[in-house]
Design goal:
Length: 600
């Protein structure tokens, strides 16, 4: 076997020979390792050249995440890195972040470091070099340097809801960015820190920084920033939603402003551009806020609007291209579906020998899967089942699991141009009544009874659409074995109802339009009857009480559970692999489409 062979062209049997079992002639680990070690060089050639620290979106767009400050100031971009560091120091001093004092006795002095990144736009073009002075919070002492640390962030569903409602009501949608976010929080504790590297005061080289404001890296910094922003937003008339603590609304008659908070990113939507500009001016009076204009790129998501057609689309093409490039799959052959039908993978396909384990340890299974899961959390419900299914083997993946994951990358190659589209309510099933717009919230619930080979558990699929596109989805293996398809569907319906009630609560708190109905479609007649009729039988008496709250919702007419046939069950591809025809039909019905579809 030549070391320059492509792993794609090899079967599992070609990649490595089977090692003898424990009862074979090899009686010591040393003898086994003598066989394994010569193959490590070959496996290094066969494996993708990837060295990932984490699978975060920022890392995918940051080529210098491992670059130290010392290397940067002596490297080819030293002038730009020095300018970036100086800008950071100037901002810290302008903000009165610390004062130099003599080191106090018996107090913890925390350390710090420079973190260097490059910022890119939605097309991948370099915008600027950025340097951040970060306190090394791991050296903080609990109870002395910090107490409470929790700070909420905007969840993906409310963010997509903002996009959907902006398209549905034709709202103005802008993107605000707060500079040096964590430097604005006020500290409750006394914290001392070493002086920044390369910027030690020449007159007081042995002094330390007594922090007046929070700093990146401190454990309490996110909390301090959140509390300060929340206090100010309330002072200028915003009300925080109880159902989503990072979603705020302010009303002035029929005019409203909706503001989301994701650390330093503030998506803002309004039915009045004048009211929006007034709010932005108020924010600028308190914080260094940049108005980036109409929303184009937020949290790794490209946002495109067509006001004439009343559409708003979400895409992550650049991120998909980066993932394929990082894992040497940029030139792979595209494929129509993410998984084969049927898929019989199980834990029996995990490594059975030391040789298997060493081969899989050299492959970036977890890193790739983490990147795919990020796509799922943002704009790609079509990847939800395959990401969840392959995650079940993350602790001990085998070659078969690896090949299945590579198929997902081939599917990404085919769907780089996939977009999630929301449309104006004038093109949807909505109506005006008594001066209020009434719009529907539709959901689908499904399950694959006993589909997991290892545990015989079922997989729940949940999906909600609003303004013509999906805003919430989930594929989840159930926590217990269902004894019938009715029970499996009933558990899935309870999961769907919980999500629906949350979204409905957000809509009711906003009170900017009325929800005409919340209808959830189910393809199991027995499940619907069980939800409508509290009948106890030998087949359902063991179902846990927490799943029965759906009966109260149906009885109180909080939601409608309605039957639909399996052919029109759009959550079907969230529970199991489906045929290419059904897969793309489900995609089209929930707002997913290829921007530039290729002819077959």
């Amino acid at each position: 076997m030549e070391p320059n062979l492509d792993l794609d062209s090899l079967d599992a049997e070609d990649v490595y020979p089977r090692l003898p079992t424990r009862r074979s002639k090899f009686r010591s680990l040393k003898e086994i390792m003598e066989i394994i070690e010569p193959l490590e060089t070959l496996m290094a050639e066969l494996s993708p050249k990837v060295d990932f620290a984490q699978d975060d979106f920022e890392i995918l767009h940051n080529d210098d995440f491992s670059l130290s400050a010392e290397e940067a100031i002596h490297g080819p971009d030293s002038v730009k890195w020095k300018e970036a560091m100086q800008l950071e120091i100037d901002a810290l001093l302008k903000n009165d972040t610390w004062e130099l004092v003599t080191p106090p006795e018996n107090r913890n002095i925390i350390s710090n470091k420079w973190v260097l990144t490059k910022k890119f736009d939605s097309q991948g073009a370099l915008l600027r070099h950025k340097a951040r002075l970060v306190a090394q919070g791991f050296s903080q002492v609990p109870g002395l340097d910090f107490t409470a640390t929790f700070a909420p962030t905007l969840k993906a569903v409310p963010l997509r809801f903002m996009f959907a409602i902006s398209a549905g009501l034709n709202l103005e949608l802008h993107h605000l960015d707060v500079e040096t976010t964590f430097l604005h929080g006020d500290l409750d504790e006394e914290i001392y820190m070493e002086q920044p590297p390369f910027f030690v005061d020449s007159k007081n080289p042995h002094h330390v920084c007594k922090l007046k404001k929070s700093l990146y890296g401190l454990k309490q910094s996110p909390r301090m920033w959140h509390l300060k922003l929340h206090t100010y937003l309330e002072s200028i008339g915003f009300k925080r939603l109880q159902a989503e603590p990072n979603l705020y609304i302010r009303k002035e008659g029929k005019i409203f402003i909706l503001l989301g908070v994701y650390v330093d990113d503030l998506p803002i939507a309004s039915n009045s551009i004048t009211a929006m500009r007034k709010t932005i001016s108020q924010l600028k009076m308190k914080f260094p806020v940049k108005d980036l204009g109409p929303m184009e790129f937020c949290l790794g998501i490209k946002v495109t609007r067509n006001r004439m057609e009343g559409t708003l689309t979400l895409s992550q093409k650049k991120l998909v291209e980066d993932i394929l490039k990082k894992f040497d799959m940029a030139d792979c052959k595209p494929i129509q579906t993410p998984m084969t039908v049927p898929c019989k993978l199980s834990s029996n396909d995990s490594p059975q020998t030391i040789m298997d384990e060493k081969i899989m340890a050299s492959l970036p299974y977890r890193q790739i899967l983490g990147s795919v899961r990020y796509l799922v959390s943002c704009t790609r419900p079509d990847l939800s089942f395959c990401a969840g299914f392959l995650s079940r083997f993350m602790q001990n993946p085998g070659i078969a699991h690896w090949q299945a994951l590579k198929r997902v990358l081939r599917y990404l190659q085919h769907t780089k141009d996939m977009v999630l589209t929301y449309r104006s309510f004038q093109f949807q099933n909505s109506y005006q009544l008594n001066g209020w717009l009434h719009a529907p919230l539709q959901g689908w619930t499904d399950s694959d009874w006993g589909g997991d080979i290892d545990t015989s558990r079922s997989t729940s699929g949940m999906l909600f659409t609003f303004a013509g596109g999906a805003i919430a989805w989930r594929s989840k293996r159930q926590t217990s074995v269902a004894l019938s398809s009715t029970e499996a569907e009933y558990v899935a319906a309870a999961l769907t109802a919980k999500e629906g009630i949350w979204i409905k609560t957000i809509i009711e708190e906003l009170d900017i339009f009325k929800l005409s109905e919340m209808k959830i479609y189910c393809d199991n007649q027995s499940c619907i009857k069980l939800a409508k009729n509290p009948k106890i039988t030998d087949q359902n008496k063991h179902i846990r009480a927490r799943h029965h709250f759906i009966r109260e919702l149906v009885a109180a007419k909080e939601m409608i559970l309605q039957y639909t046939s399996t052919t029109t069950m759009w959550a079907d591809f969230l529970t199991k692999p489906v045929s290419s025809q059904k897969h793309w039909l489900c995609c089209s019905k929930i707002g997913l489409s290829l921007l530039n579809p290729k002819k077959k």
